[in-house]
Design goal:
This protein has 5 helices and 3 strands; from the N terminus they run ααβααββα. It has helices spanning about 5-10, 15-25, 30-40, 50-60, 85-110; strands spanning about 30, 65-75, 75-85. A hairpin with a 2-residue loop joins strand 2 and strand 3 (about 75-85). Helix 2 packs across helix 3 and helix 3 packs across helix 4. The longest helix is centred in the C-terminal third of the chain and has 27 residues, at about 85-110. The radius of gyration is 17 Å and the shape is flat.
Length: about 120
């Protein structure tokens, strides 16, 4: 196991908000853009409020998963642009694998007890 993967493993599991922020940053975005993208990729199932978003951004920067890469001017406002670090990319990959394994177990259990997913 690489040092990067070791460091990433120690940061799992992620909160739902942190996971959505990280997957939204597959391309650099500012806070409001992250909020909009989370809504889109979750099919409007998740709406991050400003407090939740900026708390998650602060924690993710401290953990070294994201970094500020610039600013964008919008009228009188300066919007901070964030991007994934290499550690952040590793964490997204590992967390995605972990969630996929959990979902697979859930599907197996549902099948055994005679339930079906609404998408099937």
């Amino acid at each position: 196991m690489s040092d990067l993967e070791n460091r990433a493993q120690k940061l799992l599991p992620l909160t739902e908000a942190s996971y959505y922020v990280l997957v939204s940053l597959i391309e650099p975005r500012h806070g409001y853009g992250i909020m909009q993208n989370v809504s889109v990729i979750s099919g409007n199932q998740v709406q991050l409020g400003p407090g939740t978003l900026y708390g998650a951004l602060t924690n993710l920067v401290k953990q070294g998963l994201i970094e500020r890469v610039g600013e964008q001017k919008s009228g009188n406002e300066r919007r901070k642009i964030y991007a994934l670090t290499d550690l952040g990319k590793e964490v997204v990959g590992l967390e995605s694998q972990r969630l996929q394994a959990l979902a697979q177990i859930g599907r197996q259990v549902m099948k055994k007890i005679g339930l079906t997913l609404s998408e099937e």
